[in-house]
Amino acid sequence: MSKKVIISEEMMNAIVVNQILEENNISKSDIVSAVKDALKNDSSIKRDMEKKVRELVASSVNTLFRTLWQRRNFYEDEIKRG
Q1: How far apart (Å, rounded) are the C-alpha atoms in residues 61 and 54?
Q2: CA-to-CA distance for 42 and 30, rounded, in angstroms?
Q3: Cα–Cα–Cα angle for 13, 18, 20, nearest 5°?
Q4: Distance in angstroms (rounded) separating the CA atoms of residues 52 and 37
Q5: What are 9-12's contacts with CB under 8 Å, separation 24+?
Q6: DSSP letters of 36-55?
Q7: Nearest CA to 45 among 35, 56, 31?
Q8: How many CB atoms within 10 Å of residue 52?
Q9: 31-74 residue pLDDT tens
């Protein structure tokens, strides 16, 4: 009779990652250092990262101000009463 083993998605991802690393004879530190070198030395990647960060910050600030505007009655009333 076969047994049923239940694993989480996180465990499955770890198993797959380890299997891929073993099949290709590389380590996580090799991959990390290659990515760091690429990010450090490639100016187009730096520009793309900076552009994405700017877009994310602009979107976050926009959401913040929209939320504050929608709830302005809440804090305006408190200020007027105080």
Answers
A1: 11
A2: 18
A3: 95
A4: 20
A5: none
A6: HHHHHH-HHHHHHHHHHHHH
A7: 35
A8: 10
A9: 899 888 888 888 888 888 899 999 999 999 999 998 888 877 77
